[in-house]
Amino acid sequence: MSGFQGLSFLGPKSKNAVVAGGLTAFVFGVYFYTMKAVGGTDELQMAIDKFEDQKQVETDPKVTAKV
């Protein structure tokens, strides 16, 4: 067996492009499925934003604290 019979008419570079496209589609599919499954919130980014807001309040006394 020499690989996929349906791709036998393509050249080597074309086969590589087809495989790369398939793998890319798979990776994006897994990523979007995972984001949907976990709710799509980026908890790390939210924590970073909260930390930066708190740091700004501590360094600039003119800024009022967010409640």
Beta content: under 5%
Q: Which ranges are low-confidence, i.e. pLDDT below 50, for 5 or more consecutive residues? A: none
Q: Radius of gyration over alpha carbons?
A: 24 Å
Query: Helix/strand-derived class?
Result: mainly alpha
Q: Provide a count of the helices.
A: 2
How does the overall form come out from the CA principal axes? elongated
Succession of helices and strands:
HH
- Mean pLDDT across residues: 79
> How many angstroms separate the termini?
67 Å
Main sheet makeup? none
Identify the quaternary structure here. single chain
Kindly state the percentage of residues in helix.
Answer: 55-70%
Beta strands, count: 0
InterPro entries: Coa3_CC
Domain Cytochrome c oxidase assembly factor 3 mitochondrial coiled-coil: 14-38
Protein name: Cytochrome c oxidase assembly factor 3 mitochondrial coiled-coil domain-containing protein
Pfam families: Coa3_cc
Give structural notes.
The model has no long low-confidence stretch (mean pLDDT 79). The chain is 64% helix and 0% strand. The termini are far apart. The chain contains two helices and no strands. The longest helix has 26 residues, at 12-37. The protein has helices at 12-37, 43-59. By secondary structure, the chain is mostly helical. The radius of gyration is 24 Å and the shape is elongated. This is Cytochrome c oxidase assembly factor 3 mitochondrial coiled-coil domain-containing protein. InterPro entries: Coa3_CC. Keywords: Membrane, Transmembrane, Transmembrane helix. Residues 14-38 form the Cytochrome c oxidase assembly factor 3 mitochondrial coiled-coil domain.
